[in-house]
Amino acid sequence: MTKIALSAAGIHTWTSKLGNQPMQGQPVSANTFPSSLDTVLFSGKTATAAVAKTDNWGLTAQDRAFQAQARDYAQTIALPRAAKNDKEMQFDIRAVQELGSRGFLGVAVPKKNGGMGLGYLQTVLLLEQIAQADPSMAISLNAHNLAVSLMEKFCNDDQKKKFLKPLASGQGLAGFGMTEEKVGSDVANIETTATRDGKHFVINGGKRLITNANIAKTFVLLASTKPGEKARGITTFLVDANAPGFTRGEIKDKVGIRGADWGTLKFHQVRVPEENIIGSENDGFKNAMYALNCGRVLVGAVCLGIAQGAFDRALAYARKRVQFEKPLIEHQAVLHQLARMEADITQCRQYVYHVAKLRDQGADFSHEAAIAKLQASEMATRVTQQAQLLLGGNGILKEFEVERYVRDALAMPIIEGATNIQLNIIGKGLQKRSQSERSTS
Ligand SMILES: Cc1cc2nc3c(=O)[nH]c(=O)nc-3n(C[C@H](O)[C@H](O)[C@H](O)COP(=O)(O)OP(=O)(O)OC[C@H]3O[C@@H](n4cnc5c(N)ncnc54)[C@H](O)[C@@H]3O)c2cc1C
Fold first, then answer.
1. pTM surpassing 0.85?
2. Residue 3: inside a domain, yes or no?
3. Atom of ligand 1 at shortest range from CA of 256
4. What does the pLDDT look like over 80-128, one tens digit per residue?
5. Same domain flag for 43 and 124
6. Is 96 in the pocket of ligand 1 (CB under 6 A)?
């Protein structure tokens, strides 16, 4: 039986500098995919008995093969560009074509609609790997997937053919327009309006903090079609980026996620045909909540990648850096610090994968998605800060890269609903459960 050693044979090699000494680190991560197994899968040979039907993470050989493809792109193409994109605060537009040609813009979309026909677990694996290299690119993909998930679930066949298929097959990115100047968490109170005019709607208003604002081809937009009716008066629309009266702007000088395009959307008398309503008029709030649930699972994946990226660098550093005549990792306090980080990431990974599988099974996953997002975002914040501490003064230097993960982690407790909102959702679930327990007792 061929043995596949889950050893330090990670696919990527991190090179950095420690003082004047060039350092070659080979980070070992719990989800590192061994190159030997990689070869088995990609050579087309049947994986041997050493590859169990599913591994410790519940991943099949096919999942692992997909994960390896994602990792290959992330480490060989995305990682070398990530620091520059962060520094120059730009989204690398080449990524759209590169991701698209690999099928990565439609992972969970059925093949008939232009996608790969896989599931959310695989989308999570993709975003986790991309975020390990470049969290900004992963956040771009997250926004795209959020909009695409909504389209896949609620669009009719004609809309799927016209709007979803080009996106899922890699011809462009999608954006999700919800947040406004005066309205963030309180989505039901959005002020952008869509007023019926015969067979069209006329949209006026604005959105801000929108990922992919300047690069997306199509937007899923939330607008109020019955002002004053709050959630019962919101409709979701498909809006083409080139619609007359629709203008977009950049947001400058971000602290984190600097390599993603983030901006504003302005609508001045934008006419959208009624065929572009997703689902039914005034029934868009639930569509948006579904999309946010999907997005929360994916933000969980991004958090795993961010934490793993920082952890790998801290581990490599602790092996190499000598203080008090031994490597940092041989100081028990440091080892315990690393052990806590490893435990933190591992626990979250299990849960995020679990919630992705719930979504793939068609189960209600809203409560679990809020838990996954809450925990993973807090975990990423903790782990990145611990990693930075472990590098001492070098943790403040850009060339050691950990500081980029720390800054990118800052956005995670806010995106897709801030921490208090996740707690509200989880709390409501608890209240519902105790009410139903009371009524049956
Ligand atoms: C990286 C990133 C990408 C994003 N991409 C998009 C995108 O593509 N599309 C989009 O539409 N939006 C996007 N957003 C915006 C995001 O959805 C909002 O920032 C988020 O919903 C919070 O809204 P807000 O910033 O207006 O904060 P507010 O709603 O003003 O909240 C401020 C604070 O008050 C707390 N708070 C608010 N209400 C309550 C309450 N009822 N109880 C207790 N505490 C409360 C919040 O927890 C938060 O800490 C993105 C944000 C980030 C950081």
1. yes
2. no
3. 1
4. 999 999 999 999 999 999 999 999 999 999 999 999 999 999 999 999 9
5. yes
6. no
